[in-house]
Amino acid sequence: MSTPPLSPDDEASDTLQQLLAAALKPVALEPARSDALRSRLLARARDSVQARARHTRIRASEDGWARVVDGVRAKLLNEGASTRSVLVEFEPGAALPMHRHHEHEQCLVLRGDLQMDDLDIRAGDYHEAPAGSRHGRVRSTGGALIYLRGVSLGHTGRVIRDMVTAWLPTRGSAPHTIRAGEGLWSDLSPGVQAKHLFDGTDEASMLLRVAPGARVPKALAAAEGEYLVIEGEGFVGDALLRAGEYDYAHADADDFELSSDVGALFYLHGKVAQALRTN
Prior knowledge:
There is one protein chain. By secondary structure, the chain is α+β, with helices and mostly antiparallel strands. The chain folds into two domains: 114 residues, Sandwich (Jelly Rolls); 94 residues, Jelly Rolls, CATH 2.60.120. The chain is 18% helix and 40% strand. Strand 15 and strand 16 form a beta hairpin. 29% of the residues are buried.
């Protein structure tokens, strides 16, 4: 009769592990080798600290939420010279009033649903409102969390301007939507796919799907850009971001890779490499 294998929880297995651990003695390194190893570790830690200083990161656990109207709150992610990026959360039944866009606004629904006139958008949908376009009342039936780029939220004077000018005749291009199931995914590198959402003169927006163990080469990451993890978890350089967390790479940031051990879906906006824009 064969002996059944020990269970990981078996007392004998624990005893064996303890005996093996006790038999493993530390290996003393020569002073020169030990000093060299210590210097390399300290240099790597110093480089990591310096690199992180060129990134702005917002963790999901951080507060920073501010009331917009009853049932709607916003969390500032980044404020640039000409635009700002925020997360906006709607309670069920909450709404924002009619308004006109004076910036090119991009919206990605992260959770829940939004209704704008007869348009219904849901998790994974991307909605774009060019400057000059107008939105009617924006409401959420079941509650929602969205990412917005190109908004006036947080600037009282600009918010009032957006609501007042909404009553003027419509001008500018009409908003448009890319559904979660629409658009083409193109292979970027092994295990990495890109779905283009917006292409501007020198900036672009896209989704990046990174398979477990895959990497986006340094040469293809944005020299200056925003990264939001939508699903899973991934690394921006050596910093781990989980779903709902955000990284802004400043213009002076060193080159870095995007990667994931378990798989991740990133939203990216920035001055991306030409090779990434044309894939």
